[in-house]
Amino acid sequence: MPAAVIIGAQWGDEGKGKATDLLAGRIDYVVKFNGGNNAGHTVVIGDEKYALHLLPSGILTDGVTPVIANGVVIDIEVLFGELEALSARGVDVSKLLISANAHVITHYHRTLDKVTERFLGKRQIGTTGRGIGPTYADKINRVGIRIQDLFDENILRQKVEAALDQKNHLLVKVFNRRAISVDEIVDDLLSYAERLRPMVADTALVLHEALERGETVLFEGGQATMLDVDHGTYPFVTSSNATAGGAATGSGIGPNRIDRVIGIVKAYTTRVGAGPFPTELFDESGEFLRKTGFEFGTTTGRPRRCGWYDAPIARYTARINGVTDFVMTKLDVLTGLERIPVCVAYDVDGQRFDELPVSQSDFHHATPIYEEFPGWSEDISGARSFEDLPKNAQDYVLAIEAMSGARISAIGVGPGRDAIVVRHDLLD
């Protein structure tokens, strides 16, 4: 199978890095196709833990070519910070390729992100303040800066001047901030140009040629389906397409090249930032999930909102993405619970919804209808086959599978690289 997409099937933080790492030994290219450094992947290899924010997690596997494609927005300072940190730990980062068409996050994007969010007050979206949204807005408004612009100072200066003509009025007159000088931005971006140059390529062509040779390409989505700008809980979403369809536009490959779509779900649900979350827990059960699952953002450190598994969301994301396989992570976190509720439908003002309501207002007011399953107390971190799991854990997985719209092909049972139960080959 030459091309597969990994996507988050909830609100992010599902453990996509672990799934990518599981496949990395069998693939040739790992491609980040959306988002920026507003999300993170944590990969544990032996006693080493790696927190990646902008780089594809495949960079940790020998022989894999990591690619940052055109759909990504890049904070160049963060990029080099991550590369230097990995190099210092002995990771070979020399094969990284970056699309010439990827857009650049500048100082003014970060500034606007932070001041705009504060200005919203109670209507805040929950942005990370890293300039992602304003950079995508400039891309759509056709005043963005692309990686290739750093290699032509005249073009770069013209584009920065055009962008700041409007933004400085906003910063000074609305937000009471100082104006940002063109020279400040241009000089900063130009300082990275020569270091970037060897990494920059026509990555769409590189990936096309790799697929033509029969090599295997894995597309790694940032964030998740419920944060997708078109299909998520708008406006409490990210600014890019985090769904499988985004892999085609975000990388420049045709959708007919994608053979597998792998959706990642936790055995429960988490969310960071504002927005509706029907199964959210505000009691000791939520605190148990947060502490046991160490549910704090890889990028921000923010505590994640925690709740039970939501089957209608899984079915929705299976449809939107064409999921062929689910990978369930963090099943081990549920160990020790006597009963495990699962949301099977919603109640909205006395009306039952078996699928997500069309109206965001209805979804915001939805309360979960639960079915409970018996828990288990046995340590499952050493399980390597489905039969190694306790009977109640097996039953829980099979029940979730029947509700979620696609087979569960792998199950994470601990944070380690090898702490996984594989039921079906993800690429077959």
β-strand amount: 15-25%
Which architecture name of the largest domain does CATH use? Answer: Alpha-Beta Complex
Number of strands: 20
Q: Supply the CATH class of the largest domain.
A: Alpha Beta
CATH fold-level label of the largest domain: Adenylosuccinate Synthetase, Chain A, domain 3
Largest sheet: 10 strands, mixed
Give the strand order of the largest sheet, numbering strands 1, 2, ... along the chain: 9-7-5-2-10-1-11-15-19-20
- N- to C-terminal distance: 7 Å
Gyration radius, in Å = 22 Å
Domain count: the total is 2
The residue ranges in which pLDDT falls below 50 over 5 or more consecutive positions are none
Protein name: Adenylosuccinate synthetase
GO cellular component, one term: cytoplasm
Binding site for substrate: 298-304
Binding site for IMP: 13-16, 38-41, 128, 142, 223, 238, 302
What do you see in this structure?
This protein has 428 residues and is an alpha/beta fold. The mean pLDDT is 92. Helices cover 31% and strands 20% of the residues. The longest helix has 22 residues, at 153-174. It folds into two domains: 3-93 and 202-422, Adenylosuccinate Synthetase, Chain A, domain 3 (Alpha-Beta Complex); 103-197, Adenylosuccinate Synthetase, subunit A, domain 2 (Orthogonal Bundle), CATH 1.10.300. It has helices spanning 16-24, 76-88, 107-120, 132-140, 153-174, 182-190, 193-196, 203-212, 245-249, 284-292, 311-321, 360-364, 391-404, and strands at residues 3-8, 29-32, 41-45, 48-52, 65-68, 73-74, 97-99, 103-104, 200-201, 217-220, 260-266, 269-271, 305-307, 309-310, 325-329, 339-348, 351-353, 367-374, 407-412, 420-422. Strand 3 (41-45) and strand 4 (48-52) form a beta hairpin. The radius of gyration is 22 Å and the shape is globular. GTP binds at residues 12-18, 40-42, 304, 330-332, 412-414.
